[in-house]
Amino acid sequence: xxxxxxxxxxxxxxxxxxxxxxxxxxxxxxxxxxxxxxxxxxxxxxxxxxxxxxxxxxxxxxxxxxxxxxxxxxxxxxxxxxxxxxxxxxxxxxxxxxxxxxxxxxxxxxxxxxxxxxxxxxxxxxxxxxxxxxxxxxxxxxxxxxxxxxxxxxxxxxxxxxxxxxxxxxxxxxxxxxxxxxxxxxxxxxxxxxxxxxxxxxxxxxxxxxxxxxxxxxxxxxxxxxxxxxxxxxxxxxxxxxxxxxxxxxxxxxxxxxxxxxxxxxxxxxxxxxxxxxxxxxxxxxxxxxxxxxxxxxxxxxxxxxxxxxxxxxxxxxxxxxxxxxx
Length: 327
Description:
The chain is of the alpha/beta class and about 325 residues long. Helix content is about 40%, strand content about 15%. It has eleven helices and twelve strands. Helix 1 links the parallel strand 1 and strand 2. The longest helix has 21 residues.
């Protein structure tokens, strides 16, 4: 049973992919909740993502979560923070780790300091990548008890942030929760990411590109299911707890690409193989039984094919949106 949700929520990174979908969902389903979006508007976030939302309910503040002076003025008066703000592209973290350390670790620290000072409940949006990877042949899944074994500067920075959140709960008594989610797909995702990158290349008449042999397995979830899971945690989650969010959507990168090619009328071998990413994780898989058992959450988009078809249609219908991201 849902308890009363937050009245005044601060959503950091609310102009990015998952944050945008969260803000839209809250605006549609909880008009009583005021949302302040705090976003630096880097390349991965756009003010256009908030177009159409009621200005009386959703307010945008442009700024950096590492700016303590800004946070000092913004955080008071909110009863909850949901931290989506992050540098998140693995390739970028390998070539230039600095921004990931700054935003993902120092930024989370700054938010925690202000949250603790003002008694604001804090939710950290994290990733399954903090756990490292699993063998291809294994049937194991990560659980909330799995040890952290990050592989890339990105996942290491997210693991570090999670540890800070846990420390602020234990040491300072801050009401915190953490969610680690599997790979998201859906509307508003930047075309640097795997699924929209393939869709946009095909729509541009270019062959998609696949790292290595494409055997790497990811556990996919439609972004709206991730959003509803976060809301369940915000309204029913226990302080200090971590919840894994997944939809049993394991597929290899090759399988996903071939699904996209088939749905977009291309031969399944119409792609280019490129050199593999350094330290490329083999397989991710999450056990989401805790959030289902304790909070009663379950994914609604259980058909990957239907979700993928909806995603392709969105990118076909919003070509001006993603073409602005082309370099």
